[in-house]
């Protein structure tokens, strides 16, 4: 647990230092806003473990980006998003019961990203986004199926999650991704693949709790459309 706290703090401090101390070759003042949307492919790190299929959900929201400078060939800026995001898990039940189980967790999430891009001001750019992310749990949906519900033969007897309410509504982690941006006269079109690693747990993780680990792990594929307000 302490290691996850240290990683989170170190990443936040590193991004702040890079933004504050980078040498400026060419000043920019490019502020853009827009929308983003895509798909989440989520699993959950459980301990004790639970076999899972990938849980699919949607993500979308608003994006604001500020480009402050170009250092040699690298375009540097900051990006903030306000998103609604579906995560959760879908269990891979192989005990012969025919049961299915899917749990969707809905979050309001805010990624704080350093934006580094390479390419031409008008045309195609390759970019990297990375930084900390926080989230607020909004609600969930539990789906049980496959005939008569019989969890008595689950592997390792792990059944604590069924009907168990989310205990920690605030979450945090680190996220990063790669993408391409096409900058045109009618706006900027972006496609990105991103990974989120949750450093927090949505269930209690003390010795008396059922799980010592319950953190989200998300691969996200998204597209965005941004309009430049200042150049």
Characterization of this structure:
With 231 residues, this protein is mostly beta strands. Helix content is 9%, strand content 63%. It contains 1 helix and 9 strands, in the order αβββββββββ. It has an 8-stranded antiparallel beta barrel with strand order 1-3-4-5-6-7-8-9. β7 (170-184) and β8 form a beta hairpin. The termini are far apart.
Strand content: over 45%
Order of helices and strands: HEEEEEEEEE
Helix percentage range: under 10%
Unreliable parts = none
Q: In one word, what is the shape?
A: elongated
What is the count of helical runs? Answer: 1
Q: Numbering strands along the chain, what is their spatial order in the largest sheet?
A: 1-3-4-5-6-7-8-9
Largest sheet properties: 8 strands, antiparallel, barrel
Counted beta strands: 9
What value does the Rg take, in angstroms? 20 Å
The class by helix and strand makeup works out as: mainly beta
Mean pLDDT: 90
Our measurement of the CA-to-CA distance between the termini, rounded to an integer number of angstroms, reads 43 Å
